[in-house]
């Protein structure tokens, strides 16, 4: 294997800066993740964009925030600004389980070691930088900053927090996928425009002194939220705020959002329209090495990188709008798809990787089968305010053709260096069920499914029905479980036709808002009847900027302001989760006693059979044995 020169990566040390012959650095990026130069890692994308615009960029990856802060000082004062991100995950989701237990590993750190980033990393890093370099602007980005840009509930502290701009003391925040606003910021920075004058850029947020006049820009109308202080006193007002934020975040012609926070006003400018094909290609076609920085070699592999190094992200965004999911909140509900040429070029790059053995682990995206899907008449999309294009029914204006994916899969298959290209991302199964998705006149869904099942399943196929109760599914913004049953029939038929044995792996969530204990017992019984012994289950975690988080905190649905029951205590949550494991002896007595208390002997019979045949065990409260699914 030929060693690449160190200068192929963006610099992590002063030695690397000097190797490039630079006398100073223009922008320093500070990240909670290790530096992997790959388009799936936000710091690499942002750094490469800055480099492509002519800036000298250096990265401080996972700095030590506990010592004399030498990591933060190593490049000195940048010419323009610091960019700060917690990394590819919210640092609190990264650190803690749904039961608020500290995780023992970190997938974005060499060797999977935990402890290399602080809680609330964005805030901690920014405060340190502002103390060391008070006159240098700090720009926030990444999922932690994006989803905490407005008053939000923090599950880990069990309290409302103001915009992260307030606690961090940063100068500006870019929300969502940041390429478009970043390019605008870079143009102005080069012209010498200070951050305090950058007030007319889409998709940024900043704090404004309430004692001075707030100017209008770009003919934007403004909509005002209940203040942070009002939200602290009134949970219903907080819930009502969320609806405004979600609606405006997904509009093409959105309003500017204002919120009073103490003696300041939070200003959130409207988002950019979804990137066109050429724009998203530009991000993926930058000169990534597609490798972790060489400094990590002796520290062990980076699990998140190992998982995606032979995968291809074909698109961004998700029009599902699920209540518990942050994808549409951060990436947007409108799908931005790459060109076929860009995807094939990346596949070709992967085949040159020294460890590549002929297998692509994933041709996918946030939801694997949304590539090239968008509105047939985009003028209708421009006026749309719905948070989902497929709930409660599929929008008649949505083009759900799977043909572009089928053709692209075949082109990848035809490449000489490819033995198999798998689809590892979760498939949105409801798009493939004719009773739910009527738009299958030319049979393109069936053609796609045949191609998927026979050529692109790596042993098993992941789908996410999430629940079996229609009431809970409505809160989740997911379709009825009857459509999963129809999908399974279709899937099994194809398997039988081709003599395949590839299990279908469904994901479910326990203790989601709107779900009661009997609903979980029903779920266990229904899935047992279908032949499943569930392992891939997830205990609900309320994450900022989701409908489910707002319900969990406020007790009401933000769109109706009507009460929704939610399991909150550890005991309630564990009780719901236990029903998944009806097949484990240590749970059987507990389940029998619980269902008898609920007066549901019918469910006892369905789950456990008759008492004589039952192999009784002792009740167990040892915790959650479930697998985890990242969202």
TrEMBL record:
InterPro entries: Elp3/MiaA/NifB-like_rSAM, Methylthiotransferase_CS, rSAM, rSAM_horseshoe, rSAM_sf, UPF0313, UPF0313_C, UPF0313_N. [4Fe-4S] cluster binds at residues 318, 322, 325. It comes from the Bacteria. Gene3D superfamilies: tm_1862 like domain. Keywords: 4Fe-4S, Iron, Iron-sulfur, Metal-binding, S-adenosyl-L-methionine. Coiled coil: none annotated. SUPFAM superfamilies: Radical SAM enzymes. It holds the Pfam family Radical_SAM_N. Residues 304-584 form the Radical SAM core domain. Its cofactor is [4Fe-4S] cluster. Residues 609-631 are annotated as: Disordered. Binds 1 [4Fe-4S] cluster. The cluster is coordinated with 3 cysteines and an exchangeable S-adenosyl-L-methionine. GO terms for molecular function: 4 iron, 4 sulfur cluster binding; catalytic activity; iron ion binding. Belongs to the UPF0313 family. NCBIfam families: SAM_YgiQ. This is YgiQ family radical SAM protein. It comes from Spirosoma telluris.
């Amino acid at each position: 294997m030929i060693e690449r020169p160190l200068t192929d990566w963006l610099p992590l040390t002063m030695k690397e800066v000097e190797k490039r012959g630079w006398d100073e650095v223009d922008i320093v990026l500070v990240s909670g993740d290790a530096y992997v130069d790959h388009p799936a890692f936000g710091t690499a994308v942002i750094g490469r964009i800055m480099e492509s615009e002519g800036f000298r960029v250096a990265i401080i990856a996972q700095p030590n925030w506990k010592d004399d802060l030498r990591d933060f000082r190593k490049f000195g004062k940048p010419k323009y600004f610091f960019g700060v991100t917690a990394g590819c995950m919210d640092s609190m989701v990264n650190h803690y389980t749904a039961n608020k237990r500290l995780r023992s590993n970190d997938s974005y750190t060499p060797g999977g070691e935990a402890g290399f980033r602080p809680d609330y990393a964005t805030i901690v890093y920014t405060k340190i930088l502002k103390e060391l370099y008070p006159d240098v602007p700090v720009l926030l980005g990444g999922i932690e900053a994006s989803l905490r840009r407005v008053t939000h509930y923090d599950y880990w502290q069990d309290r409302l927090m103001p915009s992260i701009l307030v606690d961090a003391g940063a100068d500006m925040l870019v929300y969502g996928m940041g390429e478009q606003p970043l390019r605008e910021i870079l143009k102005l920075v080069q012209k010498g425009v200070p951050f305090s004058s950058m007030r007319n850029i889409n998709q940024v947020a900043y704090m404004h002194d309430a004692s001075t006049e707030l100017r209008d820009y770009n003919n934007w109308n403004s909509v005002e939220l209940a203040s942070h202080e009002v939200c602290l006193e009134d949970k219903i007002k907080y819930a009502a705020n969320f609806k405004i934020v979600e609606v405006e975040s997904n509009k093409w012609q959105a309003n500017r959002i204002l919120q009073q926070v103490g003696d300041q006003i939070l200003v959130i400018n409207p988002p950019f329209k979804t990137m066109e094909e050429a724009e998203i290609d530009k991000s993926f076609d930058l000169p990534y090495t597609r490798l972790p920085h060489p400094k990590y070699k002796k520290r062990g592999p980076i699990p998140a990188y190992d998982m995606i190094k032979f995968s291809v992200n074909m698109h961004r965004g998700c029009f599902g709008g699920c209540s518990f999911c942050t994808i549409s909140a951060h990436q947007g509900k409108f799908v931005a798809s790459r060109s076929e040429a860009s995807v094939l070029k990346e596949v070709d790059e992967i085949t040159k990787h020294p460890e590549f053995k002929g297998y692509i682990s994933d041709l996918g995206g946030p939801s694997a089968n949304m590539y090239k899907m968008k509105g047939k008449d985009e003028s209708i999309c421009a006026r749309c305010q719905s948070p989902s294009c497929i709930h409660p029914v599929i929008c008649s204006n949505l083009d759900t053709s799977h043909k572009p994916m089928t053709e692209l899969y075949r082109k990848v298959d035809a490449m000489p260096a490819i033995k198999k290209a798998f689809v590892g991302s979760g498939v949105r199964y409801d798009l493939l069920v004719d009773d739910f998705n009527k738009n299958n006149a030319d049979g393109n869904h069936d053609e796609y499914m045949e191609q998927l099942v026979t050529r692109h399943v790596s042993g098993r196929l992941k789908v996410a029905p999430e629940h079996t109760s229609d009431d809970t599914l409505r809160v989740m913004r997911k379709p009825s479980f009857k459509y999963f049953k129809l999908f399974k029939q279709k899937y099994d038929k194809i398997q039988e036709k081709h003599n395949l044995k590839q299990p279908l792996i469904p994901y479910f969530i326990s203790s989601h808002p709107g779900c009661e204990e009997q609903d979980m017992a029903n779920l266990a019984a229904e899935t047992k009847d279908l032949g499943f012994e569930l392992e891939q289950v997830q205990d609900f975690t309320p994450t900022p900027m989701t409908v489910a988080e707002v319900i969990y905190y406020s007790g009401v649905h933000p769109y109706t302001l009507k009460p929704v029951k939610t399991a909150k205590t550890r005991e309630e949550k564990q009780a719901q989760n236990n029903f998944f494991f009806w097949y484990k002896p240590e749970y059987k007595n507990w389940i029998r006693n619980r269902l008898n208390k609920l007066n549901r002997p019918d469910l006892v019979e369905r789950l456990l059979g008759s008492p004589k045949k039952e192999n009784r065990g002792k009740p167990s409260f040892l915790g959650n044995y479930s697998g985890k699914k990242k969202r």
